[in-house]
Design a protein that fits this description.
alpha+beta; 2 domains; 3-stranded antiparallel sheet; 12 strands; 53% helix
């Protein structure tokens, strides 16, 4: 449905009749606005770009990537949508999803880091530090609206503010606050906010929600697409300030069917035996961690076994899955 044309622009074709046209147009807009940020950052530095794709947050074990859970939540909402018959019930569901998407941290971190990389700066683990509250020493997390303003400021400095504009257009602070405080009413094809006496037409709200879902899906698809662009392990240069060893090269770690899953030093077994220190930053599954421990030079991994077993398990009812799960874990 959505693909690049010969000039590199994203277009929609053969859109199914049951696909909302606002959603379809928003997909095209977001692909065309956000894809150039990925391309420019990748061209600037593979090293920093892969850090951004992997959402590196320091020393973490498996199971600490919050955006993976966000994706699970999104899929759960999609399944629920198909079971709901009435428009009002669907709207309630999508209003909650709107709030969750706009509060998700990783897309903001990703976009800000892409802009940082384009500007020649390093990837940052903390893009949006907590804000100090007066002289008390207390702090609070940065609001989504403040994150967007910070992204806008950097994009403007780089002449890329138009690439961020579709994100700015979907963010409605008043609507977001009303959703999370349960301070809205649905009445006579209107969504009303009692605190401010603001009235939205439901059709207008649905347009915002469709655009927001498109924004989320484009982020997910672009990350997946650019990870997959690293099909084979390839040598890349670390930034000059990363390591004092002038001989060190980095290699992209890849998983078949996924693409980039990490970066590691490219020392051989002999060089490691002579004292070179092997280093890696990666998103590995537990069994892949064990593989790397056995062979610290490993850079190419087979297909995701967990995904394959999960597909197999979902063929069975939940009670049977519970009995099969311990058996499948033996093969991981």
């Amino acid at each position: 449905m959505i693909k690049r044309d010969a000039n590199g622009k994203w277009t929609a074709s053969n859109v199914p009749k049951d696909v909302n046209p606002v959603y379809a147009r928003a997909l095209v807009d977001f692909f065309n606005s956000l894809d150039p940020l990925f391309t420019k950052a990748q061209e600037k530095s593979d090293f920093e770009f892969i850090f951004a794709l992997l959402n590196v947050q320091g020393m973490q074990d498996a199971g600490w990537d919050a955006f993976e859970t966000t994706k699970d939540i999104f899929e759960t909402f999609n399944k629920l949508k198909s079971k709901i018959k009435y428009n009002d019930e669907q709207l309630h569901l999508f209003l909650v999803l709107y709030g969750l998407i706009l509060e998700a941290s990783y897309p903001y971190d990703l976009l800000y880091n892409l802009l940082r990389i384009i500007s020649g700066e390093r990837y940052s683990v903390i893009c949006f530090p907590d804000i100090k509250m007066g002289s008390s020493g207390k702090t609070r997390p940065m609001f989504a609206s403040e994150k967007i303003n910070k992204i806008k400021e950097l994009a403007k400095k780089l002449g890329l503010e138009l690439n961020i504009q579709p994100l700015v257009n979907i963010f409605d602070k008043e609507l977001r606050n009303a959703i999370f405080h349960s301070d809205y009413c649905l009445y006579d094809n209107e969504l009303r906010l009692p605190k401010s006496s603001t009235i939205y037409k439901v059709d207008n709200v649905m347009a915002i929600l469709n655009k927001t879902v498109a924004y989320y899906e484009v982020i997910v698809r672009l990350v997946k697409m650019y990870k997959a662009s690293y099909e084979r392990p390839e040598l890349i240069d670390p930034p000059p300030s990363f390591n004092a060893d002038p001989e060190e090269k980095m290699v992209v770690m890849v998983r078949k069917g996924t693409g980039a899953i990490g970066i590691k030093s490219n020392w051989t077994q002999e060089e490691i035996a002579q004292g070179k220190i092997s280093f890696s930053i990666s998103r590995l599954l537990p069994y892949e961690q064990r593989m790397l421990q056995k062979d610290p030079t490993l850079v190419e991994f087979p297909e995701n076994k967990v995904e394959k077993w999960n597909k197999f398990l979902h063929m069975f009812p939940v009670p049977i899955r519970k009995h099969l799960l311990p058996i499948t874990e033996r093969f991981l």
